[in-house]
Amino acid sequence: MRAKITYAVTAAVLVVYFVLVGSRGILLIETGTPVTIAFGVAVLVLPAIGLWFLWKNTQFVRRANQLAAELDAEGGLPVDELKRTPSGRIDRDSADAVFAQRKAETEDAPDDWRTWFRLAVAYHDARDTPRARKAMQRAIALHDGRPAPTV
Asked: What is the pLDDT of residues 24-58, one digit of tens each?
């Protein structure tokens, strides 16, 4: 729940920022000189890109949470069996062992979104965020019956 609140607050702050930047871009355009119009248009592009990125990221998180809820209802969520250091960080050797197991499961059933979801969790535990995101994107695509992106 804490992560959802943090995400919502961050998204709200970004939207406020985008509105402020957008209003400055409009003010620059209203000035009417060629230079300020060019700067105003350039300034308006930044909030548009930011809003698009925020929307795509929010959709990704929402879909990943839906898959997690579905997998939990099936009793298939991965169990946290990782060893931790005294500071609470995941032990690297433990994460590597679980990752090897999840990778083998995914190789045995490459068209099952559940194995890709669990592999994404293993990538995340191994601190490989880019691959975790790609594996989750593949799980979402397989779940939705779309062509899966390559990982």
From this structure: 999 999 998 999 999 999 999 988 998 999 999 99
For residues 141 and 23, give the distance between their C-alpha atoms in angstroms, rounded to a whole number.
37
* Secondary structure (H, E, C), 91-134: CHHHHHHHHHHHHHHHHHCCCCHHHHHHHHHHHHHCCCHHHHHH
Mean residue pLDDT of the chain comes to 89
Q: Are 61 and 7 in contact (CB under 8 A)?
A: yes
Determine the Cα–Cα distance for residues 40 and 30; give it in Å rounded to an integer.
9
- Give the torsion sign (CA, 108, 111, 115, 116): positive
Separation CA 114–CA 76 (nearest Å): 8
Q: Do 137 and 60 meet the contact criterion of CB atoms below 8 Å apart?
A: yes
Decide if pLDDT at 91 tops 80.
no
Would you state the structure tokens that stand for residue 46, as one six-digit string?
């930044």
Place of tokens 């943090």: 6
State if pTM tops 0.70. yes
